[in-house]
Design goal:
alpha+beta; 37% strand
Length: 91
């Protein structure tokens, strides 16, 4: 299982071999990254893949100095549960 940041398509993606099994998509709104959608193939559910996808977006945002707006309900819940993501949450 590989989780990659794909800068050209503005998403993190999970791969099992060559098969893409999950994605977290963003829209860049002038340095504010809006996480619009997170999805994992149901056959791979319960493995923490969605969390890893969001964490990859967070890592990329930190590298780029971007702030995140977690519009996706999963990302919002995950990021607001703890203070460890406060540095990248947009006001």
């Amino acid at each position: 299982m590989n989780i990659l940041w794909e800068a050209g398509t503005r998403r993190s993606a999970a791969y099992d071999g060559e098969k893409r099994i999950g994605v977290a998509e963003i829209e860049d709104e002038g340095g504010r990254w809006v996480i619009t959608h997170t999805e994992v193939d149901p056959a791979y559910g319960g493995q923490g893949i969605a969390r890893r996808l969001i964490e990859e977006v967070i890592a990329a945002a930190r590298r780029d100095g971007a702030k995140i707006v977690p519009l996706c309900s999963y990302a919002d819940k995950m990021m607001r549960r703890t203070d460890k993501y406060a540095d990248v949450l947009a006001d």
